[in-house]
Design goal:
There is one protein chain. The strands form two sheets. Strands 1-4-5 form a three-stranded antiparallel beta sheet. The chain has a two-stranded antiparallel ribbon with strand order 2-3. It has two domains: 58 residues; 94 residues, no CATH class. Strand 2 and strand 3 form a beta hairpin. The chain is mainly alpha-helical. It is flat. The chain has six helices and five strands, in the order H-E-H-H-E-E-H-H-E-E-H.
């Protein structure tokens, strides 16, 4: 009798486990579907920004994630004794480092989890980056590491620059809601002007 009750209890446990696995699988499928829908919405939002010409002072717009900012390179060359066209030299150096950032064989980023929190991407002690910092300064170093981190976050598998709807005020990827609200405001202001 006790053996029969134990078998029934084990069957009930197995049945509950199977139900939990089934529920978990259903949630995983729904999560993937939701993520796919969000990504489609983001792509449509990016298209909307392509069609919408905004002033250069807008706080929401398209940023090319992973693309180096030339300004720190120009600043670095302005501080150095000039032997030629500093703007051309700065652009050449920026282009060289853009190619380095795109190079999938070079990966100075490490993902670490601190205190069980969400993983953080950090730049490891890398010889190329150390040399860049020593020769051209902190500002250029930060521009390159920022581009590397963006590339890793928004397109790690492809290692090419990617357009992203960006909140320039907060210096982060714009929430879908922020992008939609911005486009609606732009549309409403144009509608009023007519």
């Amino acid at each position: 009798m006790a053996m029969l009750e134990q078998e029934r209890a084990e069957e009930n446990v197995l049945k509950r486990l199977e139900e939990q696995v089934s529920d978990t699988n259903a949630l995983i499928v729904k999560d993937k579907e939701s993520n796919a829908m969000l990504e489609k919405a983001r792509k449509e939002l990016e298209k909307g920004f392509d069609d919408l010409s905004t002033s250069g002072r807008a706080h929401i717009g398209i940023k090319i994630a992973g693309q180096l900012d030339q300004k720190p390179f120009l600043n670095a060359f302005r501080r150095r004794p000039s032997e030629g066209d500093l703007q051309l030299d700065a652009v050449k150096l920026c282009s060289k480092w853009q190619e380095e950032v795109k190079n999938s064989n070079w990966h100075p980023i490490k993902v670490v989890e601190v205190d069980g929190k969400e993983p953080e991407r950090i730049i490891e002690d890398d010889a190329k980056l150390r040399e860049l910092k020593q020769e051209y300064g902190q500002e250029v170093y930060e521009a390159v590491t920022k581009a590397l981190l963006e590339m890793d976050e928004y397109n790690a598998s492809g290692r090419y620059c990617k357009p992203v709807v960006w909140n320039f005020k907060a210096d982060r990827r714009a929430l879908l809601k922020e992008g939609v609200q911005f486009i609606v405001k732009q549309w409403q202001s144009r509608k009023r002007k007519r």
